[in-house]
Design brief:
The protein has about 70 residues and is mostly helical. It contains three helices and no strands. It is flat.
Length: about 70
């Protein structure tokens, strides 16, 4: 028997990989000496990616992430 936590992890791990792949191509990250810049840009990338996914699901759309960011 697999513990429920391990089963959930295995089931949802693909979403993390998809998120990382989507963010990699259109990242807002910049090189900075300040640690909070890195955190801010990571959170911004996450928010933009999540809003793109939600937009696609709500509107039954297949708009690319690039076009979504340019809107």
């Amino acid at each position: 028997n697999i513990p429920p936590v391990a089963a959930s992890y295995r089931k949802n791990m693909g979403f993390v990989d998809t998120h990382d792949k989507n963010v990699k191509y259109f990242s807002t990250k910049r090189i900075s000496k300040k640690w909070w810049h890195t955190v801010f840009y990571s959170c911004l990338d996450m928010a933009i990616n999540n809003s793109w996914v939600l937009f696609q699901k709500k509107n039954n759309s297949s708009i690319s992430q690039k076009d979504f960011r340019l809107r």
